Structure formats: structure tokens, C-alpha cells
Amino acid sequence: MQRALKHPSFVAGFSMVMLLVLSAFVSLFWSPYPVGDIDIPNKLAIASAQHWFGTDSLGRDIASLLLVGSQNSLLVGFIAVGIGLGLGVPLGLLASAQRGWIEEVVMRAADFTFAFPALLSAILLTAIYGPGLVVSITAIGIFNIPVFARITRAAANTVWSRDFTLAARAAGKTQWAITWEHVLPNIVSVLIVQATVQFAIAILAEAALSYLGLGTQPPQPSWGRMLNEAQSQMFQAPMLAVYPGVAIALAVLGLNLMGDGLRDLLDPRLSRKR
Amino acid sequence: MSSFLLQRLFSFFITLAVTSVVVFGVLEWLPGNAAQVILGETATAESLAAMEEKLGLNQPALTRYVSWTGGLLQGQSGISISYDTPTADLMMERMHVTLPLAVMAMSITVAMALCLGLYAASKQNSTGDAGVMTLSQLGLALPNFWLAILLILLFAVHLQWVSAGGFPGWSVADGGGVWPAVSALILPALALAAVQTAILTRVTRSAVIEAMSEDYVRTARAKGLSKQQVLWKHVLRNAMIPVVTVMGLQFGNLITSAIVIENVFVLPGIGRLIFQAIANRDLIVVRDVVMLLSAMVILINFLIDVLYAMIDPRLKTGATSP
Amino acid sequence: MICLIPVCQGSAERVAMSSFNPNADQPLNNTPLLSVRDLRVSLQTAQGQVDALRGVNFEMQRGETLGLIGESGCGKSLTALAIMGLLPERAQVLGSVQLNGAELTTLSDAQLCQMRGARMAMIFQEPMTALNPLHPIWKQIAEPLQLHQGMSVTAAKARALELLERVQLPRARERLDAYPHQLSGGQRQRVMISMALACQPDILIADEPTTALDVTVQKEVLSLIRQLVSEDGMGLLLISHDLGLMREQVERVMVMYGGAVVESANTQDLFEMRAHPYTRGLFAARPRLGLKRGTRLQTIPGHVPEIFNWPQGCAFAERCPIAVPSCAVVLPALEPVRPTVTDPLTAHWVRCPIWQTLEASA
User: Fold this and answer.
1) Euclidean distance between CA atoms C220 and C215, whole angstroms
2) Of B243, B215, B247, which Cα lies nearest the Cα of B121?
3) What pLDDT shows up at residue C254?
4) Which residues of B touch A224 (CB under 8 A)?
5) Nearest residue, CB atoms, A238 vs list B31, B141, B153
6) How far is C27 from B320, CA to CA, in rounded Å?
7) If we measure between CA atoms, which residue out of C235, C312, C91, A204 comes closest to residue B257?
8) CA pair distance C288, B150, nearest whole angstrom
9) Closest approach of B80 to chain A, Cα-based (Å)
10) Residue B87 above 90 pLDDT?
11) Residue of B146, B154, B304 for testing the chain A interface, max A β-carbons within 10 Å
């Protein structure tokens, strides 16, 4: 823990992520203005004491939109990563424990999914099943499954090849017991690091989908959609296009830094030479 | 040809085939049938029937799949619902924008990433290295479409050096020309390249650092080679192996990112095509474009494997790694 | 005899380089081939600065074979790397290393590059990874030839073939175009030897050259090294942890422990007399034939201290049967075992002021 506090990447990243979480949490109870409040006479106002970041083309307070939008980003990240972990990790553990044809099938399927451009498939799915938060989260989540399956299998394989698992087998433990008691605890750090990476990717992907109009639908605020709306106002109110992007970038940067820091701290053997 | 390449070739064809099945399959699994999706909820029974006829939905799925793939192999693609022209023509036309865009973006990426990555690796842990790493972190965090918007804000709105979007066309007859076309693609290419450069720089840096710590580098130094000579003669070629892998993966990324970027800049490319097709519910176009893009990605991965075999003699002679 | 080498930075370096001739004729008579005096190396680690070498002293004459023995972590490889100038940039090197009277520690990297491969050569432990997997064999052997002797590609390739035949690589002509992964470990090591000897250096440093090889191949490779070294009149510094090897292959042996040489003698004297307590323990720990069943194998009690935990004084003090309190405080100086013998080839030195007490209890 002390090392964590001294690691610059981790501290920086963690603070940014905490800011994000805090904003989301606060916005559950309070925001400067209700997000639904349309105030046409005050539209496209510049930053002032009343509206810290100004207003958009419908007079809505940008600060509030940004704040509540953080809920959206967090939600997407959690669920998408959750899907990946929930389905990908068991698959990876299975592939690693069973080996043989099961491993082949799982890995081929994972490889194959990688060949498919992910964003494209997400767009396709939202097109067929209709745009919206649920569909876009699912689409993004589905592409997390092969990522986690692959990484779980690779990490689990290194644990299985260690002698103590052989000893456990010789002592009569079943594969499932070994997986649960030995393999899983040893790969947790890898999974945590990957989870932060995938969280960041999910936020970016959802932002892109929302920008295209295929993600979170109004009235739920979304940073990506805010950027789309801002683009049409580029000449009148250029700053509108800056704020939501900064929010996204900070969230992603924070997660990436935190992930890098965690990678160094949790398992120095994992950390690539820096 | 070595067994490695044969294996890869085989894998290439199998992946193509499976992809086609999946693409076809996904579009079969629609809520309601294809005709309903295309025409929407307000369609009358007659128009639905007509559409079903047109799509051949009365035939079993297998027949339709075979006629589709058979057509593709013979160079005939489906007919777009909304434009009523062969999708192949549509795609060809759009490729005139997307392909140059992808090539420009990839060139910028490779040029910048190799320079920055090499620099950072050779000056490891110095301020120069830290600077490069920080820049790359920023590059990774920026959504590319936001960067695109920022670039537009700076260069089009504020400085007015280029237009804020649109594509004039390659031929002067159409009102464009080579230079106007290229200048319309510069900002989009930069936006695309930024993230990919950040990724590739990191990969290059770590690949070079990794290669520099290998034993054969120590041997080369013991023979009297200077650090520079070691870098060029021994390290680079070995470091290229992981770098080339990532470059291949990035191409797939580029193509999908182009979908978003083309929308930001309103460029009439493949990305915009598929987006409009989805909006128009033109499933034929969607199906064919997805197949094309997937095929391109699979082809690139195959070419990367060929490149491997050329670089690494261990693959050429089919030896297993020691 | 001192060779003055002006070492200037920057633009004056070219002047320095022109007056520095690595191929200058060797000075006559008594200058030793290699002279290492009070060599100290300090490394930067994650836990801070550590003294890895604490004053290594020895001399090697032309044509002499010198062995360096010790456990892992005692600094043997570090000594070799320090001589070659191949330590990481942030290592601090103090003391003197002279090759043919020319001081190496003050040379710039460019000047050292001219020496390495040409006048001094080194072969390493792991032939598997020591060769570049992407270059054919002949190219790797030709590299020093092209670099130091300016040979053309064809000339260098022909010479590479000669060298491969000299190291007795079977089917040398076919193997020229082969890649490292197509050869076995012993064959790769032969390639390494031919690479090292290509420019006929004055000294060859072999850092555990056979440790990674099969036992059957070890002997062949070692005798090959001995043969080539004596044919060319080179000096050989053989580093190993294997006592048996030392007995057969070298004329003098130095024992290292805790970053310093603790005993140095000619092979026969070392094997017979074993002055230093560590050397005694090392010899006693060897399993021998003919012991009665059930005899416990002797070990040295305790374990090798980590480099960060080396005491100020003798590093062996904790495990030494005859240690006294002053041992751990001050690093003893080297003392002659037989003060009357001064010939460097037969002198016997030990780094222990009370080594005679061990004699008594032996």
C-alpha cells in the first residue's frame, strides 16, 4: 500500500478515476441544474458564474450535463467489463484446465472474433436491434469476452505449468478445486490490470457510438452525444466541443495511468521494461 | 513454400469462409425478417411481400447463402436497396476516398512511431523518453473523433487553412484535383494517425528495449561494435517482429475508426456508406460492406504472416523455437 | 613502461584516436599482458548503490592460462565485463586495467570498440541466445573481420570458413549459411569461439563457456579452447564454478568471494595447500568417490550473503570457522603464503591475516 502511494502513475490515475466516480456519485443526488431543463433564451451562453461551463444549443447547463454524463460512462465501463470478466474468465479457465480440443475451440473462436473489427460489429448490432444504451453496452461487452478469455488462459497456463499444481494433482485435488484455490488467486492481478484497460476502451467505444447517434439516447446525457451536438455549433460556440472531450480524455487517461501503476505494483514480473 | 506459409494460406481461406457464414448468419437472425427490418414498421402487407420476393426470402437460407457467395466469387455482388446499383460499384467509388485516407494515416503513423519509439528506447529513462511516453499516454486517451473536431476547430474554423469537411473529388473535371483532394484528407488522416501513433510508439519502444537486452547484443558489443552499429545491424530487425504484428492489427483498427472519422468530416468513403446504409436500413449494402471490410482485415493479417516468414528464418526453415 | 593515451572529449577525440593505435606492437619483455589493479565496481540497483567489486588485483602474462573460480554473485562475470568495458553505463569503475600496458579504464567507448574483438575477446555462457537468430553463421563470424580488418564480404566469408574448420565444426562449408537455431549447443559454442578468435586477439576471456553444454561436449570444447589459445600464444582467463575444470585447464587459479579475490596460486599449490578458509570449504564440499555409505556430504554452513548485505570487512566472516571480530570490520589485504617466493607465476596469495590457524586445525 505504501508503494502504491509513492507510484506517480498510480496516484495520478487513481485521483482522476476517483474524480470520475465522485462526480457520478454526486450527480445521483445533485447537479447545478436539472439536466432536462431547457432554457432557450439562454442558449449557447459562455462560461459564467451561473453556468460554469456555459450552456448548449437548448440552454441546458453544460456543467450538469458533464456531471450526469459521468454516470453513463461508469455504467458502460462496469457492465461491459463485467460481461467480459463474467463470461471470458470462466472460458479461459476452462480452456486452460482442460487443454485438448476444448482449448483449441475456445482459442480459435477468440482469434476469430479478433479478426472482426469490433466497432463495426457494434454498429451493426445497434443497427439491427435499434440504438440505445443496452444494445451498445452488450455489443461492447461481447468483444471483451475473447480478450479476457485469452488473457485468462495465458496466465492460467503459466500457473498450471508450475510444480505446485502438479503436486496438488498428485495429492488428489480435482481440477476445479485447483483452479479455484490456486490458479484464480494467482491470475487476479493480471485480470485487474486488464480490466482497467478494457474499462477505458469501453468508455471510448461508447463515446464513439453515442457520437454516431447509436449509443445512449436522449434524454440521458452522454459525453459522446454532446460532442456530436457541439459539432454543429462549432462556429458559434467552439468551447462546447472541448469540454465533453476533455471529460472523456481525463477518464480514459486516469484509467490508463492507474492500470500502468497497478501493473507495476501488483506483479513486478508482469511489468514490461520501462 | 514453407509449411508455415501453407498453414497460413489454409487458415486464410478458412477464416474468409467462416466470416462469410457469420456475416450472413447475423443478418438472418433479425427481429422479424429482413423485409420487415428494411421497410420498417409502417410497411404495408403488399410492400412487404414484394420486398420478400425481391430478397428471395422464400428460398431456404442455404440457397441464398450459396448464391450470394457464388456471386461474390464470380465478381457479382448484391444490388443495393436504396441506390438500386450493384454494391460493388458503390464500394469501388467509396474506396477512392477511404483507401487513400487509410494509406495516408498509416504512413504518418509508421513514420512517426518508428522515429519516436527508437528515440525513446535509445534514450531510455531520460527526460526525452519520459516526454515521449507522456505524449503517447495523451494520444491513447484522446477519442479520435474529438481530436478530429479539435483539429477542425483549429485549422478550419480558426486558421481557415482547410475546409471543415467534405471531399472535392480526385479529378479536376469533378471540381476537385489531386491537391484539393489530399488537403481534404490531411486532417482526417492526422486524427486517425494520432491514436495509432501513440500505440505503435509504445510497442516500438518496448520492442527495441527488449531486443537491446538480448544476449546477442552483448556478443556484438564484445566483438567491438559501437552502440549505433548494434542498433542498426542487430536490434532493429529483431525488434521489427512484434512491431509488424501490431501494425497489421492497427490496419483493422484504422478501417473501423475511419467509419467514425468519415462521419466527422463528411467524407464520402466506405465508413460513411455503411453508416448511411444502416440509417436507410439497406441490409444488402451493409452485408456486402461488412464482408469487404472483414476480408480486408483478414487479408492484411495474412500478408503480415508472409512478412514474418520473410524476416524470421526460424519460420522459413520450419524450426521450432529453442 | 607506460603508454600515454590522451583522452579528450568532443572534437579533440579525433586527435586522440589517431594517436591511439590498438594494433601497436606489444611492448617488449616484462609488461604483463593484462594487469588489473585495485579494480572497484559500484552498481546502481533498485535498492541503491552497491559495491560489487571491492579491489580485484591480478596480473596475467602472455600465453598464461588463468582461472577464476567462485560461486554465483561473487563478481567473476563482473570482473570480466569490467575488463572488456561492457558494464552498464551507470556502473562506476575505479582502479586500473591495463592491456599490454595500455590503460583501458580511461578510454572512450569508441576507443574501446577498437580494442574489443581485435585485441581482447570474450565468449559467454549461453550459446543458445548469444547468437543473433536472424543472421546466418558466416555473417556473424565475418562481422569482426569486416569491422577491424576491413575485409570485403567475399574475403571475410572465406576466412569464416577457415575459422570454422579450425574449430572443428563438422560440415563447415554447408554450415556457413545456416542459422543458429539449426545448430546444437556445442556447435554454437564453436561458432562463438571462432568469432572470438577471428582477429587473433591477445587475450580471450571465457565466462563459463561450457556450463550450459552437455557433459560429453564440455570436455571437447574446453580442450579446443586450450589448444587454440596455446597455438596463438594468447592469454586465457577462464571463469567457472567448477573445481575439476580448473585442475585440468589452467596454470593459475584465483578464488573469488564477496567481490574480491581471496586466494590466488598456481593450480598445483591451490589444490594442495588451500590456504583460505573459503577455499578449504569449497574443496571439502566436493563429493568424492570412495566415501563410506551414509557419510554426510560436507557443506559450508550458512549461505552466500546477498550483495547488499556484504559486511565492511571480509565477506566470508559470518561463515568462517576461524573468524575473529576484526574480520568483519576491515577487508584484509592480500598476503603472501610463502614470502620468499616472488615469481608472479608461482607466488601464492591469500586474503586472510589468520589463515595459518586453519592450517593447524586441518
Assistant:
1) 9
2) B243
3) 92
4) 143
5) B153
6) 51
7) A204
8) 78
9) 17
10) no
11) B146
Does position B318 have pLDDT exceeding 60, yes or no?
Answer: no
Judged by DSSP in three states, C237 sits in strand
> Per-residue pLDDT tens for C313-351?
888 888 888 888 888 888 888 888 887 777 767 788 888
For chain C, which domains are there? 11-119+201-285+299-361 (3.40.50.300)
Strand order in the sheet with C102-103: C48-60, C34-45, C92-99, C102-103
Query: Which range has the worst mean pLDDT, B104-108, B165-169, B258-262?
Result: B165-169
Asked if residues A81 and A144 have their Cβ atoms less than 8 Å apart, the reply is yes
Check A227 against B206: CB less than 8 A apart: no
Cα–Cα distance measured from residue A35 to residue A26, given in angstroms and rounded to the nearest whole number: 14
Q: What is the pLDDT of residues B103-120, one digit of tens each?
A: 999 999 999 999 999 989
Cross-chain residue pair B143–A123, CB shorter than 8 Å: no
Collect all residues with Cβ–Cβ distance below 8 Å to B30 and sequence separation of at least 6. Answer: A128, B36, B37
Yes or no, beta carbons of B219 and C195 under 8 Å apart? yes
* 8 Å CB contact of A234 and B157: yes
pLDDT-derived band of residue A269, with 50, 70 and 90 as boundaries? low
Give the model confidence (pLDDT) of B2-27 as tens digits.
Answer: 777 888 888 888 888 888 888 787 77
What residue type is assigned to position A147 of the chain?
A: V
Write out pLDDT tens, residues A218-245: 888 899 998 988 888 888 888 888 889 9
Residues linked to residue C65 through DSSP beta bridges, in sequence order: C236
* Statement: residue A272 has pLDDT above 80: no
| Residue C5 pLDDT | 36
In this prediction the pTM is: 0.80
User: Do residue B317 and residue C179 have CB atoms under 8 angstroms apart?
Assistant: yes
Q: Which of B222, B229, B322 sits opposite C84 (nearest CB)?
A: B222
Nearest chain B residue to C113, by CA:
B224
Give the whole-angstrom CA distance, residue A95 versus residue A107: 8
Q: What is the pLDDT of residues C277-310, one digit of tens each?
A: 888 888 877 777 777 777 777 777 777 777 777 7
Contact A227 B142 (CB under 8 A): no
> How many beta carbons lie within 10 A of that of residue A25, not counting itself?
12
Say how far apart CA A233 and CA C71 lie, in whole Å: 73
Chains that touch A (3 or more CB pairs under 8 A): B
The ipTM, to two decimals, is 0.83
pLDDT at B238: 87
A35 Cβ neighbours under 8 A, 6+ residues apart = A60, A61, A64, A65, A68, A219, A221
Dig out the grid coordinates for B138 from the structure.
Answer: 495523451
Burial class (CB within 10 angstroms; exposed 0-12, middle 13-18, buried 19+) of A78: middle
Please report residues of B whose CB lies closer than 8 A to that of C188: none
Contact A48, A78 (CB under 8 A): no
Would you state the cell numbers that stand for residue C136, as one nine-digit string? 546466418
Cell of A132: 440505445
Best mutation target among A17, A116, A232 (most B Cβ atoms within 10 Å) is: A116
Q: Find out whether A224 and A66 touch, Cβ atoms under 8 Å.
A: no
Contacts of B237 in chain C (CB under 8 A): 134
Q: Which of A108, A138, A211, A240 is best to mutate for the B interface (most B CBs within 10 A)?
A: A211
Name the amino acid, one letter, at A120: L
Share of chain A above pLDDT 70, in %: 95
DSSP, residue by residue, C244-270? HHHHHH-SEEEEEETTEEEEEEEHHHH
Dihedral-angle region of residue A57 (phi above 0 means left; psi in -120 to 50 means alpha; beta otherwise) = alpha
Closest chain C CA to residue B312: C134
Query: CA B34, CA C143: separation in Å to the nearest integer?
Result: 67
